[in-house]
Amino acid sequence: MLDVIRAAGTISRVGLINATGFTGATISTLVRKLIDEGLVVETGRAESTGGKRRVLLQLNHTSRYAVGVHLDHAGITYVLTNLGGSVVARLARAGAGAEDPSTVVARMAAEVSALIDGVDVERDRVLGLGLVSPAMRQWEGYPLDRALEQATGLPVVLDNDATAAALGEHWSGGIGGTATSAALYMGTGIGAGLVINGITYRGTSGNAGEIGHVCVDANGPVCWCGGRGCVEAVAGPAAVVASALAHPELRLELKGVSVASDFAAVSRAARRGESAALELLERSARYVAVAARTLANLMDLEVLVLTGPGFAIAGAVYLPVVREELERAFFSRAAHPVDVRLSRSASTAPAIGAAALVLQSELVPLNEGLRLPENLAAAEPAPLPLP
Amino acid sequence: MLDVIRAAGTISRVGLINATGFTGATISTLVRKLIDEGLVVETGRAESTGGKRRVLLQLNHTSRYAVGVHLDHAGITYVLTNLGGSVVARLARAGAGAEDPSTVVARMAAEVSALIDGVDVERDRVLGLGLVSPAMRQWEGYPLDRALEQATGLPVVLDNDATAAALGEHWSGGIGGTATSAALYMGTGIGAGLVINGITYRGTSGNAGEIGHVCVDANGPVCWCGGRGCVEAVAGPAAVVASALAHPELRLELKGVSVASDFAAVSRAARRGESAALELLERSARYVAVAARTLANLMDLEVLVLTGPGFAIAGAVYLPVVREELERAFFSRAAHPVDVRLSRSASTAPAIGAAALVLQSELVPLNEGLRLPENLAAAEPAPLPLP
């Protein structure tokens, strides 16, 4: 119900009956309950279509909030979003670096408090905290979610960066509510998050969207995953950095601190017009575009967003190459194009998505995914998925 | 509801409450209605778990039937399946060849009658006819579905071969009801049908699963689709046949009637132990395996079935190569394997799937797909999705 209202923006009770199939009596009861809980407000009347002008409903955007956190070596990004998915506060702080996990968690709890208090949001309106982070060696075995739950007093939901970014783009990037979209995420590696009809698709073990391990050259180099010619091995950030290291001039730009920072250095060199750097990125872009076409052909995608720190700095090189590939060779281009976009919030998308995960668990019960019996369960009015 | 009962095999009313989230009162009413309609029967009691032994429900398999038809140049396959998805009758007849569409339709109507009458099923228990066929030039613009509807008096549902085969394998091949599976279909080309949590996934324009146009060599030959190095161009049946034509001995086997019949000729030569033929198929299998890995990595698949006429004849060569690739290089193999199977009904799977489409439109309202609002609609008890 809430997600239907969110996707519609504003909708009348009759509209809800049509969209959900519930009876008028059920809709009346549910809407009354949502209004009592403060989650939904009445917001004027629709244009007349002949009969009585209908009262429109919309989410009460300021009734609930969620915190999204993207924890990384190099930086921690915090956002506070409201029930409508809009970012109402953001913070960028120093990364985890080599610090002790418990020290970082204590600092994060203080930074989360600063985030919430900075915009005067009452704590009990914050539903929870979504957290995304890449695998970090010194954190292995550390119960990050429980520690952070204890330190902040908020329920914590963990997810991976590409899936969170996909959801974040879907919510904040103006993608239609029920579109089938993917976010191509370039950080240290390349991943994709998939959103089918507005719901994150995770696959059998939560590993769907491993586009970094899509083969672009069956006779290519062996990848660490065991396959041959994976796009990440052939053309991912680490491959770009390795090629740059072999280049007499470019190698001077590289500090060797991390793949991400060296990839950023190559990208800056390309922006300055250094042709060797630009050539490396353009070669990478051609392979990434081919992998994007493979994904688009398999999923019959409507929207593809380039996001994450890699595209935040080098997106201007990749975007036209990916667009050209899909305009020329997307299988279903006669039926519809793939709308390829560069994220307007590539560096904050994972944090926004992490917050969206928390909000989605409010709007659509979490873990429901696409399993039919559970969808049926979610549609049962009796135990409403409300706090 | 019906699909939950079908997937469970047998289930008690309490089981239904747990699986659907409906209240006990709702379940009672719905079950009573299904029993009155003859769709569900009570079938004994469950083992006691301490309390009263619960009455078990199951689909009344013989209450409804569907016809599935796979129309092709070379042959027409008919099946009649019951509500449980079991094939109760099948027929194989001459293909469409170059015959006039209306002649073929008149013959098909007679053959459908022979199919149904042969097992004494009452006509009014047959819900409809599912039809799959490849694109056939002389049929372009011919309103096949309406003509067949008129000639048979049955509602007709059209679909593509790979999607129908995937659904057919899911229903008849013992794949778990809510598994995420794909059928790799080799006919004249290579396609895939995708089933996410038991429901066919079609994508934005119904073209999801275009695995034939997954790139396996970014610098490979240009494909008719506009891309480079598509697996179909590099290693599909037409590519195998082209290589065989260039081979002095193998070319003698080829009649040039169709790609499918020439591919079958190469496969028979391989079975007879002709090493040149075997080498061609094994080369093809290596590329197909790489495309299968790409699909498995993107979708995080549980089950992959090799099906369709191509695998029906050459599956013994492809199966071990695809299995080996996924055992060695499937990204999520530490979490779970991909169960790679050769269909036991590769040549009839599309027809079975076509019938399953009709049955699924009975069990789960058609076109519901994965769209959330429509799923909600489907869960609304009021207008039951029954005839």
Automatic annotation (TrEMBL), chains A, B:
Keywords: Kinase, Transferase. SUPFAM superfamilies: Actin-like ATPase domain, Winged helix' DNA-binding domain. Gene3D superfamilies: 3.30.420.40, Winged helix-like DNA-binding domain superfamily/Winged helix DNA-binding domain (1.10.10.10). Transmembrane segments: none annotated. Signal peptide: none annotated. The keyword Kinase applies. GO terms for molecular function: kinase activity. It comes from the Bacteria. The keyword Protein biosynthesis does not apply. InterPro entries: ATPase_NBD, ROK, ROK_cs, WH-like_DNA-bd_sf, WH_DNA-bd_sf. Belongs to the ROK (NagC/XylR) family. This is Sugar kinase. It comes from Saccharothrix coeruleofusca.
